[in-house]
Write a structure and sequence with these properties.
The complex is a heterodimer of chains A (114) and B (418). Chain A is an alpha/beta fold. Chain A has 5 helices and 6 strands, in the order E-E-H-E-E-H-E-H-H-E-H. The longest helix of chain B is centred in the middle third of the chain and has 49 residues. The chains are: A alpha/beta (114), B alpha+beta (418).
Chain lengths: 114, 418
Amino acid sequence: MKVRLESLGPITVVIPQGRLDFGAAAAFQTAIEQALAGATALIIDCAELEYVSSAGLRVFLLAGRSSQSAGRPFALCALRPAVREVFDVSGFSRVIAVHADRDGAVAQIRQRSV
Amino acid sequence: MPNLPESEGGASVPASDTPLADRSPIAWVRRLANLLFERDGPYARAFENLIFALIVLSIVSVGLEATSGLPGWVSSTLRVTEIVVVAVFSFEYVLRIVAAERKLAFIFSFYGLVDLLSIAPFYLSGIDARYLRGLRILRVLRVLKLQRHVLETTVAQRTRELAERNEALAQAQAQLTTELEVARALQIAILPSSFPMAPGCDGAARMLPATTMGGDFYDFIELPGGPIGLVVADVSGKGVPAAFFMAVARTNLRELAAHHLDPGACLARTNDVLCTQNPMDLFVTVFYCIFDPSTGVVRYANGGHNPPYVRRGDGSIEMLGGAGGLVLGVMQGVEYPDHTLQLRPGDRLVLYTDGVTEAFNQANEPYGVERLIAEVQAHGDGPADALVERICRSVAVFSGAAPQSDDITLTVLAWRAP
């Protein structure tokens, strides 16, 4: 799995690519922690994420927790159907804000920080 | 380095290569050579030290000789020293040739030439005194013998340390492996090995961990009044942390099941308890159902687990609704709604973890829900354990040589009639 970062002003966008399984989870967690350190808000854009295992889900959970305790808005967007299904079945889409696209995620973060 | 000591040949040839019965002088010399160049042997170390001392002595004396106006007794002492040094070095040179596997390669190697040139002036000085001065300078090459000595000692030292460290590592590894095997046996032993005796039904289950220890589990719980609780669950992650959380989740769920006869309430309480015992931020997906063998009624709740399937007696497959409850261990105060399924005689309930559907083959394709459904549809009308066996074999055949990436757990309940 690879991770790309983009900046939208003060918002950092993390873009995971490929398969997020047990083997990739630790590296993804480190990437998110580093991204969070320099950002006022975090979006994880999952448009290029093909697969997520339960160990991968845990990283999203931890990312949500860290951004909450740091007082920084956090959102997910652009989940592919296979990944969306994992989020729905596990109930994660109930506790983490999931948006159809990046614009929706940005709008929610802007609204919350106003 | 122009040449490593190893390339010079048989310093490490064991003495046992030569039969002890062979008492010819050549065999004797070979045995001596092997003894004196044996790696780490006591004689070899003493010989090394002797050579080292003589090299230093000869370098000092070569330096002294170059100074003019030395008293007569010093000159004669130096002369004697030189004879002793050359004698021992010549002895060493011959022994090294004897010990070398490829003798010519040694003679023409860098250190082989150094050895020869550092003693050659002594032998050649008798031939023609005019060359004496030029030749004597070659004895300076003895400094290079010193270099080999240091190099060999260092290599031997490092080799010894490495061997000791490797042995310690191997011991630690062996102990860890033994302990993990015991832990794995314990983990499998706490899972029920048979389905509770109940009229008109049978059940079977299997858990195949991907690593030594797994995060999946299943359970059969005999509840007061005759119903049977069935659990299938999957802890996030793998290995020892997942196995510990699995044991905690399984124990809590089993204990709370006796007091909460609604599956949703049982999951909600289990979740609350797990949230307070979760330092690693793990979580567990749990499907929990309570089955009444006298009526075929299944009441269930789903905490983030893959929805199970029911195979009707006519071979049709239905997926159980009510998925999407939050996994357990993430957040306190979550509620899990109860759902109901009426089994008809001849129905099978198939519970599984995603290790089944996400078993990959060598082409990196997942086993998938479709293959699972096809197996259940085609072979689901026999006993529960036969279906479990059938699906496990199908997954194993599909995966082939690809390594198992996740724990595989299957539970099948077959109901005939009360």
